[in-house]
Amino acid sequence: MKILKEFKDFITRGNLIDLAVAFIIAGAFATVVGGLVSFLIMPLVAAIFGQPSFQGLTFTLNEAAIPYGQFITVLVNFLLVAAAVFFFIVKPYNMWRARRAEAETAAPEAAPEPSEEVLLLRQIRDQLTITNR
Fold this sequence. Notes:
Layout: H1 2-11, H2 14-49, E1 59-61, E2 64-66, H3 68-106, H4 116-131
Antiparallel strand pairs: 1-2
Helix pairs in contact: 2-3
């Protein structure tokens, strides 16, 4: 029974739940980015450069057809997804973080002057620590 309790503790541990949620969100996000590339960026590439698919490119080696065009298509899709993630997520996030850090360091708020009572209590504290040594 101890092993079942350990397994239950493992399954319900917070970081495992967080990881599962992150995995599900990442899958949904991959669908969004894939849609961005498939439905927005690839049609733009097709409008500018012509047909964006290289699926039909092959060469024959000892009577075996090698579809290198499929690899080129996958590579182009990967580069477009990476560019979309960089320009639409990473770059704006880094700019936001830099602006936030700049705002935090640019105008540090001055601590208000302590009241006379606080100053007096600090003096008493300091005197007590000196006499207790």
